[in-house]
Amino acid sequence: MKRTLLRAALAAALLVAGAPAAPAMPAPLPAAASVDSALADDWRPPLSTRGRYVVDADGDRFKLKSVNWHGAQGSWNGSGDIADPASHHDGEKSDQTPLGLDRKPITAVLADFHALGANSIRLPFSNEMLHDQRPVPDTAVAANPSLKGRTPLEVFDAVIGAATAEGFAVILNNHTNTSRFCCGLDGNERWNTSQATAQWEGDWLLLAKRYRDNKRVVGADLYNEVRRTVTDDANWGWGNDHDWWTATQRLGDRLLTEANPDLLVIVEGINWQGIPTDLTPHWRPTLEPARTLSHTLVASNKLVYSAHFYGYTGPNHTGATGLGETHDWRYQELSRDELFETLRRQAVFVAADTGRHYSAPVWISEFGIGADETNPQGRAWFANFVDFLIANDTDFAYWPAVGFTGHGRWKLLDYDSAGHRSGILDGDDWRTPHWNRLVTAPAKTGPVQAADTWDMLNLDHADAVQSLRTRARGDWDPGARKGVCPDGQRLVGLSHHDGRGLCTDAQAPGLAGPTGTLSVVTDERYVTDGDWAGGYTKLQCPRDQFMTGYSVRGQAVSAVLCSTAVRALPRTGRTVWFDRGDNRPAGEPGGEFAHGNYKGQCGAGEYAAGVAFTGAWAKGKTPDALLCRTL
Fold this sequence. Notes:
It is built from ten helices and 28 strands. The chain has 631 residues and is of the alpha/beta class. It has an eight-stranded parallel β-barrel. The chain has a five-stranded mixed β-sheet with strand order 17-18-23-24-21. Helix 2 (106-116) links the parallel strand 3 (65-68) and strand 4 (120-126).
């Protein structure tokens, strides 16, 4: 949320016009030549995930110790003369470039990032910046004369090239639609507030392709702090134009299939819903909705969730003072134990809870506090927050890294007009011991063992065909809604209504070969070894095949999709009925994948070989039973 606060959803929104149509982005300039860097030798791209950890190409833990180098997303406050620094956040006029290029050479800034102990950079940008063909003012890059005459995007290219040449992992962050400072009622509340969703997707695809050959550009942080406009909330799973879950699910898959399969796809939770008054519902959902509706990408090892925390905000507090302020607790007003419980509930559960469909790394991609903070509660919050990050071995990114001396004190590094540095590396800054504790704390390192993968399928509003192999085959049941597990997984659970499914590779990774037969089953021809659901219609896989997908028409079962196993499969099994209540293994592995519905689920050591249903009165041909067989 930075220091610009969400004042109130009752205030008038200042909507800024979206970026005008522009020619396709020019090709990036050549990256800077590689330099000797211990960091560059320390990890090998690309990055992916294993359970709660981010890992490099060798399978070794790569903990994101990141800083936010902001500026390319814009700094204008939205009113006043845009050419006047006083009209920009903290008086820091960025000219749509990462801050500090007027004061320090890029290599000098990166040297300071090395000194901070960072290994990665979150690099915010605006959609407007991507299409601005005007050269940046010479004054904006005065300390980097080779960048004079270049567009903001070309400066962005140069920063990325230099950072990755020194070994930093770069994560691109779509911060705003328009080039103004976030975050309030500013026309940038959603990915599609001041532009169409198609523009947002198109810009991301172009950017992902632009840096595809630079393997140290490792991630796409899809949008920053999704929040309420004056009139409407973003939501998680409603299927409309304001549905953040649907938007990120679709774009994540498009990035991996159309642009760059190596990218991490980073999804931040919803930052705010509701009207912040003491009389109206309001809260900060963060990642809590993922407990019952998580993302399943075509590559399950590419998802990272993220969240932001600042002491002056709270789980039900916008951070406002005066207009828009409520009587809810701020994070810094919580006790240490209350704070830790709240952080776990809102975000860190996705990493702490193993063996769930939502299990993934969590990256706290923004947190921070001012060097001039005097409030004892604020200082205690920061110390406690750092303790929490250390205790949970949590990936992080401080906001912000760079600023101008005498213009606010939140930055880790300040540069004056002559390029002299001050801040956390130089003298009396109360944050220094906490920062040093954080970046040097003991953490998981080295090889990370492969973990069982669990994913959910959501057919609420559209298909969920998450298998690349099946996508290549085409539409296997036209007119029906279809769910298919990601390649390498099998279906183990179904809901009685609404078409939810649960997938896993537990105890049988690689059960399906890359080229084996896929069978679409619509009748009982393969029910040849006993009636396992008397009086019910049964769709059963052929011998040595297992269920990887299913389709429904309305609520009714239409077909099952079966994949050939790489080995003979046992035929010993059991019928799991779930038409009158849940029937799941002890501990409900995989988590809650169909909240409010009855669910049936095979055990972790079983595969689903068939589904049974009936068209009897009031039954509706919904899934009633699974045939579960031993692996």
